[in-house]
Protein 1
Amino acid sequence: MADIKKLRALCNSPKFSESLPITLGENTWEEIVITCRKCGRVLPDEDVRANVSSLIPSVVSVEGVGACRSCKILIPVTIRFRIDGNTEYTQGGRWVKSLGVPIAFLPRISARISAWFKKCLVQG
Ligand SMILES: [Zn+2]
């Protein structure tokens, strides 16, 4: 289950676009498109925030949140980039392995949000 407090805290993270491109070995991800699971809209740069870390050299982990202003929902963005070029992201709380470089992620989990939504996004 998505944790509202966690998602809310992630809104204060840097823009995900600032962490791009992500380079691992011979693979480079220059652009990651996050779409709203509800309306399919591509979320603009400023509405996708994420912390990018690499605990082991062959994997880059992304934990963040995207916000769809139209649907007023927060969308968890959890991705792992692997040195072999594979990308994994969570769907319904489970890791899904995908071959190649996906251009869109459609996380099933989303959380309804309330008054803090705008406040959360105004900054930055
Ligand atoms: Zn939407």
Protein 2
Amino acid sequence: MKARLGPDTSNPDFSPFWEGCKEQRLLVPSCRHEHLNWPPRPVCQTCFEWNDKWVEIAGRGSLYSWTVVHKTRLQSHLAETPYVVGVVELRGTPPVRMVGRCEIDPAAAMFGLELVVDFHRVSPDLTLPFWRPANPARASAQAPAQAPAQATP
Ligand SMILES: [Zn+2]
């Protein structure tokens, strides 16, 4: 049996989320009071009623926590090291925190860094939400305070 990397998109608890990603939408479970619940669960963590629908949330958030992966045993990820895996806090009630790859300079990772979702189609069955800086100029560790003037030829 061939080892499979990636999430099980057929898991019924998560499949609406993965279907939403294919449509470039972030969907999370919600109860009738519009409380957001992540990770998915049958009962709302706030009011203890059933989560009976999936709602779309904005793909904007901020870096809440992170780790920098310097070494990996995954051959498919070796060329990408070092890379950042972060917990991204999305606005909502209560706030949703999702774990995902962050396309940021590891040295520029900081609490509160504004991020936006960027969907990566890995295969016909899998699209992953990655996170990139909302303001790329602020997310570079080596970014000069002011860009030097360039001479025009
Ligand atoms: Zn609720």
